[in-house]
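sorry for the late reply, my laptop died twice this morning and i had to redo everyting from scratch. anyway the thing you sent over, i finally got around to it. pasting the sequence first so we're on the same page, its 259 residues, then the predicted structure underneath. double check i copied it right bc i was rushing
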Amino acid sequence: MLSDWRQTFDQQIVTTKPCLQINSSFGEVDFLLFVQRWPPTVCLQVSKTIACEIPAGVNYWVIHGLWPNSLTPPNPSYCNKSSPFDMKMIQPLIHDLGKDWPNFFVHHKDSSFWKHEWEKHGTCATFLPALSSEKLYFAKSLELKEQYDLIEIFTGRGIVSRKDQPYSLNNVSNALYAHLKVRTLIGCEYAKHFKYPLLSSVEICIDLNCNLIDCPVSLEGCKAESVLYLPIERVDLKVTSTKPTFSDWIQRYYEYRDE
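ok and here's the structure:
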C-alpha cells in the first residue's frame, strides 16, 4: 500500500504531469533507465576500499537510480549546476528514501547518495513534466520501485536468493520478461572466491511517455551463463560483544566455498 504522502502526492501532482516527449536542452535523451541493485553484491564489490554495511531490515532490492539515457553516447550528466541538491525539497520522502534508496557506505550519509544521483542524473530529466523538480524525480523513482518489486517478481517464478546453487541467466531473464513483457538488462559482478558471477543489478528501460520498452540491444548486460543470487547474511550480534566489522561480514560470504 502506498504511504500517505504518496497517495496525496500522486493525486495532486504526479497524475497531472504525465511524461511527455519534448525536446531537451541538455542533450539527446531517448529513454530512461531505472536501476535496482542487490545489496550483498554491492558490498562485495567495494569491500577492499570502502566500509560497507547493509542496513537492518533491508532484505530486498534497492534503488540505484533513474537515469536519462541516449541511444548515441555519451549520456547526459550534470546538466544544471544552478539546481543543486536541496534536502528540504524531499522532506516528505525521507522515510521512504531511507528504506528503498539507502546508502550502504558506512562513512557517508544517505543524503550524499541522493545528492549525487540528483545532480548527475536528475538534473538531466527536468525537461519531462513528471520529473521537472527534485521532489518529482525522487517521488517517481520510489513509485517505480514499488511498481516493479523484484523480490515479488523473482519469487513468483521460483527464484529466491540462495548460497549453494547458481541460476541460469536465461531463467532470471525469462522471469523478468514473463512479468514485465520487455527485455531488461541484468548486471553481474565477479568476486574473489566465488565460482560464478554474482547477480548485481536489474535495469528497466522506460520511454519518455513512461511506458516500459525493450532495452536497446546496444546496451550490454551480464554475459555469464549462470549467476549466484546470494542471500543477505549478517553476523550474529548475539555472539559478539562488539559491533562486527565488515571483514567479519565478508568472511561469512567467503565461507560459502567451504560449506
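The chain is about 30% helix and 15% strand.
thats about all i looked at so far, will dig more tmrw
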